[in-house]
Amino acid sequence: MEETADFVARVRAGDPRATARLISMVEREDESRLVVLKALHEYAGKAHVVGITGPPGAGKSTLTDKIVGLLRERGRRVAVLAVDPSSPFTGGAILGDRIRMQRHAVDEGVYIRSLATRGHLGGLSRAVSEASRVLDAAGYDDVIIETVGVGQSEVDIVRIADTVVLVSVPGLGDDIQAIKAGVMEIGDVFCVNKADHDGAERVTREIRAMLETAVLNGAVTRFSDLYTARAALKPAPRPLEGDHTSVAASDEGVSHHVTSQMSVHPGLEIPPVVSTVAETGVGVEELVQEIKAHEATLVATGFLRLRREENLSWELGRAAAERVLAKLEQDERKGSLSELARSVLDKRIDFYDALDTLESALVQA
């Protein structure tokens, strides 16, 4: 591999070839990538990481394409990580999101990369965390992660993104079933796309009703503590432009959340629910405003650092667990596992004594 310092400098300069090469190394879990990632570490942490998630067919790719265009109009450099499902038979992926974003292909301020899930559950690829940090260090202002179409429990995006946009659409059958617990609990901004279709207003009302019910029942939600901290700020934070690490509250500020509408609780504070028609761009400007206003609130309240600390704690735990599993898969340890299993079957020890023995062995290793 070329000299590390030169490679790092090229990535830092936003060289798309160097960036693409490093992300490919991340996908392959190439051990040589670690020295480069370590060198890039000090440069990461400035980008706003936005997750776009929702069920298949919600129009996430088209919506992402429009969001990218509006962010570029603001002069921001934007990177997109579009995660596509892998074939269970060939292991390959269609990587079709690039097709929907072709108009940005010649824009040097946009980087689009498709990643295959490679069998990883949770709506994301295993490589997404590292790839997003690479793009952050490469100087992109916004990193958008578009997940595969997710169900009710595939919510890994909440462990990576600063702001999560949950996209819903009418016509999914039982709308409450489609948007209930699981993915409903991870949204910071809610989007009802294809708002020109029949049933869109009903979906919007149901989402608001569910959010209101959570607040009225005193449920702990993703936005509870954030809104409490935001309410203590006088004045409220303003939407960010430029480097968010130096932004403070402004006298001209507006809060990121909106009071509920079409409700018997007109003053209740819930996350924004924005109606869009991605194909035509209707409502997307408002969606971008809400996304950036949410970022401003995270920064002004200190919740940006708190969320990132929680997410890194989770990622470190998962990475440590994977290392432990890798050790257990080593031939010399498989024999020890088999011996412990025989001891449990022969009633010489019970399952939990075996587990304690295994844990002690791993700690001493």
Structure description:
The chain is α/β, with parallel strands linked by helices and 365 residues long. It has two domains: 43-301, P-loop containing nucleotide triphosphate hydrolases (Rossmann fold), CATH 3.40.50.300; 330-364. The protein has 13 helices and nine strands. The strands form two sheets. A seven-stranded parallel beta sheet has the order 3-2-4-1-5-6-9, sandwiched between helices. The chain has a two-stranded antiparallel sheet with strand order 7-8.
Q: Number of helical runs?
A: 13
How many β-strand stretches? 9
> Rg, please?
22 Å
Helix content: 40-55%
What's the CATH architecture name of the largest domain? Answer: 3-Layer(aba) Sandwich
Element order: H for helix, E for strand? HHHEHEHEHEEHEHHEEEHHHH
- Supply the number of structural domains: 2
The gross shape turns out to be: globular
CATH class of the largest domain, named: Alpha Beta
Percentage beta strand: 5-15%
Category by helix and strand content: alpha/beta
Task: Summarize the main sheet.
Answer: 7 strands, parallel
> Can you tell me the residue ranges where pLDDT is under 50 for at least 5 consecutive residues?
87-93, 246-256
Query: Averaged pLDDT, please?
Result: 83
CATH topology of the largest domain: Rossmann fold
- N- and C-termini, Cα separation: 32 Å
Keywords:
alpha/beta; 9 strands; single chain; Rossmann fold; about 375 residues; about 10% strand; seven-stranded parallel beta sheet; two-stranded antiparallel ribbon; globular; 2 domains
